[in-house]
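Render Potassium-transporting ATPase KdpC subunit in 3D.
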Amino acid sequence: MLSQLRPALSLLALMTLITGVAYPLTVTGIAQLAFPEQANGSLVHDAKGEVRGSALLAQNFEGPEWFQPRPSVASFATVASGASNLAPSNPALAERINKEAHRLATEGRGPVPMALVTTSGSGLDPHLPPAAARYQIPRIAAERGLPAEGLVRLVEQSTERPLVGPAVVNVLALNTALNEMTR
C-alpha cells in the first residue's frame, strides 16, 4: 500500500506546486509586465491622485447633479453582483423600471433610454450608451448652472469607441471629468 501511496502523494505535491504556485505566479508576473494598469484594477484617480474607483465597476452617484449609471440590483455591491433574474412578465420588474423612469424623466426629452432603467447582467456595468448620457444633460446643466453645450462636449470627449462593439461612456470617468470641469 505504501508503494502506491508514495507516488500518489508525490504527484499531488508536484501538481499543487505547478498549478497552485508556479502557474499563478507566472501569469501574475506576465500580467504585471504586459498590462500593469488592468492587472492592478483599472483604478480611476482624481486630480489630487486619490483613487475614486475602478473603471471596471459601476458606482452609485447620489443626487441629480451627477450622471447616473445603470441601476444595480445589488446596490453596487461587488460581493452580491448579478442580475435580478426577473422575467419580463414579472410585475416587480415593471414596477422597478417605472419607478426609475419617473425618477430620471426629463420634461420634453421623450422616453428615458432603456440603459438607464434596466440592469446589466452583472449589475455593475460601468458603461452607458452615449445617448443615455446625453439624455441626462439638461438635468445636470440645470442643477449645476452649466451650459448644456459644455456637457455635450464632455460626453463626446468621454465616449470610448472600441475596436469591436458600440461606443460607450464610462460613468465614473465622466463624473470625474465633470467634477474637474466645475472646480
